[in-house]
Amino acid sequence: MISVIIPTYKRKDKLRQTLESVLNQSIKDYEVIVVEDGSNDGTKEMVTELRDTHKNLSYFYQTNKGPAAARNQGISKAKGEIIAFTDDDCVVPRDWLERLLAGFKKHPEVVGVGGKLEASEDELKKNVYARYEKYMSLKAYGTGEKEVIGGFDCPAGGTNNLAYKKKVLVEVGGFDETFPVAAGEDADIKKRITDKGYKILYLPLKVEHHQDYYFGGFLKQSYNRGIGSYHFQKKWSQPPTKLEIYKQMLLLAIKSKFNLLVKPQKFFVLLDFIFQWQEYRGMLKHVS
C-alpha cells in the first residue's frame, strides 16, 4: 500500500481540487491522509463530506505547528510502506501514484521518487509568473524531461510531488519541525536521507501548481525562502554574516545588470533579481 499525506492550512477550496485528483487515481490500494494545521475555514466539514464516498480518506487535526509537524503526524498514522506527499494547492495526474510506484519497482536501489511542479498549460499561456516559476525550476533544479538518479543534487525533493519509503523517513526522524517558516524543511530531510548514502529518482512527472500567480505572492515566497535558507545553512554549515549577505546582494546587482544586457529573457532576469533580493532580505532578518 502507498499512503498520501496532504498538510493543509486555510485552503479549503484549493484542497478540494487536490483531493478530487488524489482520490481519482488509476490504482486502488492506497490511502489519503489530510492533516489540518490549525485552520477553521470549514476544511473538516468538506473532508468529512468526501469521506462518505471515499473510505480511503482520513482526517486529522493539530494546533498550528506548520507543515513539517503536519507531515510527521501523517507519517505516524500512515499504513503504507511508501508515503507520497503533495500540497493543498496542487492537482496530480490520474497516473501519479502508479508512476511513482513504477519508479520504485524499476529502480529498487532508490528510497525516494519525485517529479516536477508547474502551472497548468492554460496558466502558463496567460500568466508570466507561472512561466517564471517553470523557468526557475529548470534553472535551479534541472527539472528536465529525463530520468535522473542521484543524491542531494537530484532534481526531485520538493514535497509537492514526492514519495519516500516510510522506513527511511522513520530512520532519519521525520521532518524537522524547528524551521520557522514553510520553507527549507523538504531540502533538510532530503539532505539527511542522501547523507546516509541513499539515492533518489527524478521522473519527468508533472503535478499542476494551482497557487495564485501574482507579484506579491512571489515576493512573500521569496522572503520566506530566504528565512528557510538561512535556517538550513545555520543547521548544516556556517551561516553567512550580515557582511557576507550584503556582498552577495552587491554581486547579484552587478550580475543582473550584465545579464540584462546579454540575456534574451530580460523580464525573467529582472524578476530573478527582485526575488533573489527578497531572499537575501529574508536571510538578513534572521542573522544573529
Automatic annotation (TrEMBL):
Residue span(s) of domain Glycosyltransferase 2-like: 3-129
Segments forming a coiled coil: none
Protein name: Glycosyltransferase 2-like domain-containing protein
Pfam families: Glycos_transf_2
